[in-house]
Automatic annotation (TrEMBL):
<comment type="function">
    <text>Does not bind lactose, and may not bind carbohydrates.</text>
</comment>
<feature type="domain" description="Galectin">
    <location>
        <begin position="24"/>
        <end position="156"/>
    </location>
</feature>
<dbReference type="Pfam" id="PF00337">
    <property type="entry name" value="Gal-bind_lectin"/>
</dbReference>
<dbReference type="InterPro" id="IPR044156">
    <property type="entry name" value="Galectin-like"/>
</dbReference>
<dbReference type="GO" id="GO:0030246">
    <property type="term" value="F:carbohydrate binding"/>
</dbReference>
<dbReference type="InterPro" id="IPR013320">
    <property type="entry name" value="ConA-like_dom_sf"/>
</dbReference>
<keyword id="KW-0430">Lectin</keyword>
<protein>
    <recommendedName>
        <fullName>Galectin</fullName>
    </recommendedName>
</protein>
<dbReference type="InterPro" id="IPR001079">
    <property type="entry name" value="Galectin_CRD"/>
</dbReference>
């Protein structure tokens, strides 16, 4: 019906219709769990320089919410960087990837699968990298934040 289909364990606290042009979007869900996954698909790309996807423990800004994983695709540098922030401290940024999977103006599908002891990140069905958990309580991860000039066609 064009509304958000939530596969993350509980209803989100937003009414989102797709396709949707996103400059900044956050949605709350019932908490991450082993075997859970997040899926983001986009239809078009407005040739911006980057986009980001973050899974966080709430949306607090003061004090800042912990960030379990922050993904940022930087088209100009052909990088897909990831990091986390726990108790206000950023970890070591990771940027090594076998190839840059995004092509301007081409659709893509990003899936983040939660496993023990890591997130596995897939782009268009191909595993790109693993990111080991830095947050101990996975159920505390209950918010997704997406930014960038994207037109989302599916989020679940």
């Amino acid at each position: 019906d064009g509304h958000l289909n939530n596969s993350l364990g509980s209803p989100v606290q937003a009414d989102v219709c797709f396709p949707r042009l996103v400059n900044y979007l956050y949605l709350r869900f019932g908490g991450m769990y082993l075997g859970g996954s997040l899926l983001a698909e986009r239809e078009t790309f407005c040739l911006c320089c980057s986009f980001g996807i973050s899974l966080t423990c709430g949306e607090s800004e003061d004090p800042p919410a912990d960030i379990a994983i922050e993904l940022k695709a930087v088209f100009t540098d052909r990088q897909f960087v990831r990091n986390s922030c726990v108790a206000g401290e950023w970890g070591e940024e990771q940027s090594s990837i076998p190839y840059f999977p995004f092509i301007p103006d081409q659709p893509f599908r990003v899936e983040i699968l939660c496993e023990h002891p890591r997130f596995r990140v897939f782009v268009d069905g191909h595993q790109l990298f693993d990111f080991y958990h830095r947050i101990e309580t996975l159920s505390a991860i209950d918010t997704i934040k997406i930014n960038g000039d994207l037109q989302l066609t599916k989020l679940g």
